[in-house]
Amino acid sequence: MENDTGFRFFNTILSCLRLLLLIGITSTLLGQAAAAEPIRILALGDSLTAGYGLAANESFPAQLERELNARGIAVQVINAGVSGDTTAGGLARLDWALSDRPDAVILALGANDGLRAIDPALTRANLAAILDKLSTRNLPVLLAGIYAPPNLGKEYETEFNRIFPDLAAEYDTLLYPFFLAGVATDPALNQEDGIHPTALGVTRLVQQILPYVMRLLQRLPS
User: Fold this and answer.
1) Do 52 and 102 share a structural domain?
2) Which of 75, 115, 199, 220 is the right S-S partner for 68, CB 3.0 to 4.6 Å?
């Protein structure tokens, strides 16, 4: 009888150990699966982000994703660029864009506000509202600035160009001062309209902004 009781006790202990081992293995596998999930970066912008005049694989999000993947960083860059969009349009569709559950955001809106000579105060308010929403979700942001067209006058240009550094400081957001740096003034890197980059121009853009994107990734929760 004692041997039988001891045998049952041993089997119970062994079953418990097997169950704990199974739970441990399952937890490890789930952890590995979670770790394998790519980082999701939302690129929220206008035609400069969408890839106007380019093939889908030549757009800014596509080229940035390939560059990061080539560096061994598992990333999915979500193309949330809409041609012709303003900061007001970006704000209106923000909740829809966030349904993709990004881990970080590149905010590149404002070019069409400048082209349409929209009141800089409205542009500032729209961008601030977007940053407010992103802040409540604890999403790290890289704010890509844009410069006002010089033909709108010095006063407009000064007020508009101040928006991006001011908001970056206010929201403790990373700032890339000019989204088209190294591209805008080079005809060889722009399409015939003189506004939108060619595929090679986007490649240059990605090379220029990449160090800032790396800093953005460093702000992700560990």
Assistant:
1) yes
2) 75
198 torsion bin: left (phi>0), alpha (psi -120 to 50), beta (else):
beta
Choosing from 46, 47, 59, 113, which is the catalytic residue?
Answer: 47
Active site residue 47: yes
Q: Specify whether 66 is located in the same domain as 19.
A: no
Asked if 83 is an active-site residue, the reply is no
The verdict on whether 196 is a catalytic residue reads yes
Which residue in 46, 85, 103, 196 is the catalytic one?
196
CATH number at residue 95: 3.40.50.1110
Minimum mean pLDDT among 21-35, 100-114, 151-165, 170-184: which range? 21-35
Q: How many domains in the chain?
A: 2
- The residue among 20 and 94 whose pLDDT is bigger is 94
pLDDT at 32: 40
Query: What's the domain range around 92?
Result: 38-218
Q: Which of 4, 99, 193, 222 is catalytic?
A: 193
Measured CA to CA, the distance from residue 38 to residue 15 in angstroms comes to 37
pLDDT at 46 over 60: yes
58-64 long-range contacts, Cβ below 8 Å, gap at least 24? 58/199, 58/202, 59/202, 60/202, 60/205, 60/206, 63/199, 63/202, 63/203, 63/206, 64/206, 64/209, 64/210, 64/213
Mean pLDDT on 56-79: 98
pLDDT at position 222: 77
